[in-house]
Amino acid sequence: MNSGDTAWVLMSSALVLLMTMPGLAFFYGGLVRRKNVLSILMQCFIILCVISLQWMLFGYSLAFGPDFHGIIGNLSWAGLHGVGATPNTNYAATIPHTVFMVFQMMFAVITPALIIGSYAERVKFPAFLMFTFLWATFVYDPLAHWVWGTGGWLKSLGALDFAGGIVVHVSSGISALVLAVMLGKRIGYNHRPIRPHNLPFTVLGGALLWFGWFGFNAGSALAADGIAANAFMTTNTATAAAGLTWALIEWWHNGTPTILGTVTGAVAGLVAITPACGFVNPVNALFIGMAVAFVCYLAVAVIKSKVGYDDSLDAFGVHGVGGTFGTIATGLLAEKAVNAAGTDGLFFGNAHQFMVQGLMLLVTIVFAAVMTFIIFKIVDAVIGMRVEEKNEIVGLDLTQQSEAAYTVIE
Amino acid sequence: MKLITAIIQPHKLEAVKKELEAVDVNLMTVTNVVGQGRQKGVTEIYRGAKEAGGLLNKIRLDIAVNDEFMEPTLSAISKGAHTGSVGDGKIFVVDLLECVRISNGDRGGKAIG
Lengths: 410, 113
What we know:
- By secondary structure, chain A is mostly helical.
- Chain A has helices at residues 3-31, 37-64, 97-119, 125-148, 153-157, 165-183, 199-218, 226-254, 259-273, 282-307, 315-333, 351-382, 389-394, 396-400, and strands at residues 67-68, 72-73.
- In chain A, a hairpin with a 3-residue loop joins β1 (67-68) and β2 (72-73).
- In chain B, β3 (44-46) and β4 form a beta hairpin.
- In chain B, strands 2-5-1-6 form a four-stranded antiparallel beta sheet, covered by helices on one side. In chain B, strands 3-4 form a two-stranded antiparallel sheet.
């Protein structure tokens, strides 16, 4: 056991919590209309409550517990039975098992919260709760087991996902797209973004995401070591490159760089570097950041408006597309010189790794899409996903929560 | 000259603006207001304390027009803001005594458009 490692992973867990609340909550909250800002904050906050409990009661055991045929963990760690101060050497030999579990808990929390961006401003609160609980249990937990759990079938094939590009970003991003299409557009959405009500909130949230992401990525080394330091540096480099590149694209394409564009670019950079951060060097991280800005700009500013689906806050355009790009980039640019525990990618002569990354990507996309479709149908039949038209018009804050964020008159 | 004041649903502002532009009425003042009409307000709850029938958010448009523009303006607003349910809003019209364009001192009808 190593007290330095333990301290760093505990700290990182708190940093990842910060990403959900207030980071993501304010990032998304600023982007919606003033009548819906509390609904976003509430959804993020309650996910933090619900998934924290789901995880300690049985979610952790499903995802990381003793393997059942490579598909799922069994329930022998339910209620954290047997998860204590003794390290689990399969996952992290130098920190208490509880610390590893807590770190993973924060990932389980933020993943369903990312999806909020696609259905913002138009779902019933009880339906959102039911969807989130089912999605966490039947999509996130199995997928985390396949990729990260001991005995998980994708892990056994050698798939690389350092900090959750696949498990967190592709899974939530694809589910976001499916939801956006199934729910339909918001009333009044006309192929153009609806104007954000508070961009300073969005910038604040985006900055907190960047800050918290050091815990997400460098913490995923599960040790305070050189791999963590490399992940920290590649994360910062890709993010800076993507933010700058997005601003330059806008400058060239629209005449002025915008703060919303710069922050969006930075988040796309964070997403793309997530699967790669522990396996690539900082110069290649720079290329990943620059390239993902182009790819996500295309998805968000060009393709979305042409196709016409209403991914309210671009959960798919940033997380789905950025995560997919990062996963492919990992298969290209990973090198053993950076991380001996990793492997070489295609550009370093290992075509096999590239194929494995592709397979993992394909499996995740199909699994997340099909399961989201099924869960949507169930929730829609039991509760009804979408709010009534008049409630959508008045806003979710007043109709789903009976409170308002701002007063017009005291 | 008439001063037209319309109270409409916030989400109908874009549609109303489009209808007004179609009849060549391009100048307007827009404000956020709250109010109550036949549409019941919503109940708000703060730490357990209920406040029934709170006021609802609306948009107020103030538009000054020459007489011949009154009817087209009224129908444009009605068309853009109509959903058929309670809460669509109201339009008020009053006679306008004078109008001054501050930049060049124009008065009356020619100062309006």
